[in-house]
């Protein structure tokens, strides 16, 4: 049942993104930014963690999870270190994923010949 909920929640998030591009006519960059902001707002309201517990990877894989991670890290560090923790918390939580994307992207560029 967990897989079904993950599939449905992740699919709904993707349908919202496709709706924003097809019907609202947002660019892909605006759509991605909107979904990140939506994840951040949901985490700020305390609604994203219950969604993660309910849907698992269906809520942690889409881009909305990045907004969740930003706010979650900032709030956790702000409790410990005050105002400066807001800035350091954002980087602490997301740095591993961003660093991995840069490193793996670099190695793929070395291995494969880009077309363009």
UniProtKB/TrEMBL annotation:
The keyword Transmembrane helix applies. The chain crosses the membrane at residues 6-24, 54-71, 83-112. Pfam families: SpoVAC_SpoVAEB (PF03862). InterPro entries: Spore_V_AE, SpoVA. The keyword DNA repair does not apply. Keywords: Membrane, Transmembrane, Transmembrane helix. NCBIfam families: spore_V_AE (TIGR02839). PANTHER family: STAGE V SPORULATION PROTEIN AC-RELATED, STAGE V SPORULATION PROTEIN AEB. This is Stage V sporulation protein AE. The lineage of its organism: Bacteria, Bacillati, Bacillota, Bacilli, Bacillales.
């Amino acid at each position: 049942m967990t897989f079904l909920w993950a599939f449905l929640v992740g699919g709904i998030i993707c349908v919202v993104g496709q709706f924003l591009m097809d019907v609202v006519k947002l660019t892909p960059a605006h759509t991605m930014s909107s979904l990140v902001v939506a994840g951040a707002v949901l985490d700020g309201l305390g609604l994203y963690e219950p969604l993660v517990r309910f849907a698992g990877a269906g809520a942690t894989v889409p881009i909305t999870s990045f907004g969740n991670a930003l706010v979650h890290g900032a709030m956790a560090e702000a409790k410990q270190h005050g105002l400066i923790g807001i800035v350091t918390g954002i980087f602490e939580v997301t740095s591993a994923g961003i660093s991995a994307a840069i490193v793996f992207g670099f190695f793929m560029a070395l291995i494969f010949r880009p077309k363009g």
